[in-house]
Model the fold of this input.
Amino acid sequence: NAHRNRNNSNKIDAQADSLKEWSYAQFMKEAMKNFDQSLSIPKLLAESKSSLYTPFVLRGDDAVYFNDDLLHVLTVRAVNGMGRYGLQSVDKKKAYYHAALSEYRRLDNREAELIFTLDSIDAITTAPSDLYLRTFGNNVPYEVEQSTYSSERYKAYINALNRFGDLPLAVEIYLRMVMLDVSINQKVKWINEGYARYADYPRIKKLLNLKKDLEQPTLCLDMPSVAYPNDSVVCVLTHRNVSTARLVWHRLPDTVTVATLDRERDGLNLSTYIKKCAKQINSCQFTWVVNEPHRETKDTVRLKVPGLGLYAVEAICEEMKHPQTEMIKIVSISRLQP
Done:
């Protein structure tokens, strides 16, 4: 934990006897030398117990699969340290993992081999998800999903599943796969497949919780922040697993402007402030048939705007237990042209 108070400069010329003055870069430069030396003897590290080094080593959730050895601790720290130090040498990471995997293979510790195989896949391979960041709920374009199936990472996961599929711990492979950029239907298919194969695995709830997240109703509202009287405004409702929703116009007090709204709220969240201080003007309701429960849909609607003033337009869905901030938009209706 010594590096917590180190500075983040790239200075590496502090004297060896001035350890407190070392930057994180200098500290990691010297640490990598020690990692290299220690990891050159994986057999000895596999025989050494990390529990002997408490509190410098905290026991993680996966420690039991590694028999609490030092080999997995130092390998993980070395790889993570490379990332923090800015060393992105794939060859060096491969060497670290290869040494550890060879030792676990010699010991016939397949659980440890599986976990480190997955860690090495994530550390060394690339996938579209590295470049095409998105959250659960967004539709993945066809071409992106196809590139995922062609990626080195996806193929490595499938190879791992073929090799370790007889182990209950192999459900961890599915947990990694559902983070790839594929359609939500494919994610759910993998989750159901993993549950069917490994229902008795102690941490199977992780997989089921991911499915539960995918099945949660979502609703987001997008619309312009400025409109003009006697005109209409285009709204985009993005929804998934939602059958009904309402759009409600709330008139904010005349004394409130866009610039003063945050101050007027005085710490209240926007939804609470609207209920307390705004006046409902009108509303409209939408009904959808949910044919594909995991597919996100975008609907465009055109609404006639009320009179001059500052409004909060709120999308309300009774099916959602936890409303999102994206469900309220502030709209200024003015005769002034931008």
Q: What stands out?
A: The first strand starts at residue 218 and ends at 222. The chain has a mean pLDDT of 84. Residues 90-106 form the longest helix (17 residues). DSSP finds 13 helices and eight strands in the chain.
